[in-house]
Write a structure and sequence with these properties.
By secondary structure, the chain is an all-alpha fold. The protein has one domain. About 55% of the residues lie in helices and about 0% in strands. The longest helix has about 35 residues. The C terminus is likely disordered.
Length: about 280
């Protein structure tokens, strides 16, 4: 029974709640109740979806380790492994996030991939729990593609594990409903303010802020967007993503009702803001 509790991630989920629920009360970006709309859906994603994500990611990593063993040791791998563990951990985060940046952009650009990623972007109330709403195949492909290079390069398994642990907590923070003034870091590190704009409905924020950990990549490749002192007021997508966990899990496999124009530019079809909920101008 203990293995099932661990596989479902219940201890980690409880620890995240203990940390982030009070934090979102103290530093709330948007005034929202703890019990919100679609809470049950995101709880299902955190528990059942999380178990599926861990299974998919574990299979992807097993494949990566098997490929590394098949290719055999290299001189470069020996030099990398000889570095201090802390330096390897930093390098793993940089290399994996560089890979994640480009794979993430691909999930926004390719209609078939966007169908999976739209589930994540269907979040309309950002908080620490909503960030768990990620389709297992989306997560397996993005994270698998991000960590495959560092595994093949020969980085220590401990460095990869440490980087993955830090990524897990960082991504929860990025989706959290918190207002943090971290302007001195935002040029390099992804922050909640930075990532919230990635989920915003405003047209000027579309196709922006792809990096998961280092905003520097968005600045280098011209996709950064972070207006000073402003935050999105509306999140989500226009396409009719189901509200239930099972509906969202099956959504990428359903026939798309989107028009040809919407299919050509899947990310550029966010739900229009209602007149009763004006969006703050960033012009």
């Amino acid at each position: 029974m203990e293995w099932l509790v661990g596989w479902l991630g219940l201890p980690r989920l409880l620890l995240l709640a203990v940390v982030f629920v009070p934090l979102e009360r103290l530093l709330a970006l948007h005034d929202r109740p703890v019990v919100r709309r679609e809470l049950s859906t995101d709880l299902a994603w955190a528990v059942m979806g999380g178990a599926l994500v861990r299974l998919a990611f574990a299979l992807a990593m097993l494949g990566a380790f098997a490929l590394r063993d098949l290719l055999g040791p290299t001189a470069l791998a020996a030099r990398i492994a000889a570095q201090p563990l802390w330096l390897q951990c930093i390098e793993v985060m940089v290399v994996s996030d560089f890979c994640f940046y480009w794979v993430h952009r691909m999930f926004h650009a390719v209609p078939a991939l966007w169908r999976f990623h739209a589930v994540h972007h269907s979040i309309e109330e950002m908080d620490w729990l909503a960030g768990h709403r990620v389709h297992p195949l989306d997560q397996a492909l993005t994270k698998g593609s991000a960590y495959l290079p560092v595994i093949l390069l020969g980085f220590s398994d401990w460095a990869v594990a440490a980087a993955a642990f830090l990524y897990g907590w960082h991504t929860v923070l990025l989706h959290a409903n918190v207002r943090l003034k971290l302007r001195f870091l935002e040029g390099v590190i992804a922050t909640p303010a930075f990532h919230h704009w990635h989920h915003g409905r405003e047209r000027k924020a579309w196709d922006r802020n792809f990096a998961a950990q280092f905003s520097l990549f968005d600045r280098l490749f011209g996709t950064a967007y972070l207006p000073k002192g402003e935050a999105p007021t509306l999140y989500g997508v226009e396409e009719p993503v189901p509200r239930s966990f099972l509906g969202q899990l099956a959504y990428p496999f359903r026939r798309s009702p989107a028009s040809p124009a919407a299919v050509a530019q899947p990310v550029q079809a966010p739900r229009k803001a209602s007149s009763s909920s004006p969006i703050t101008s960033t012009a």
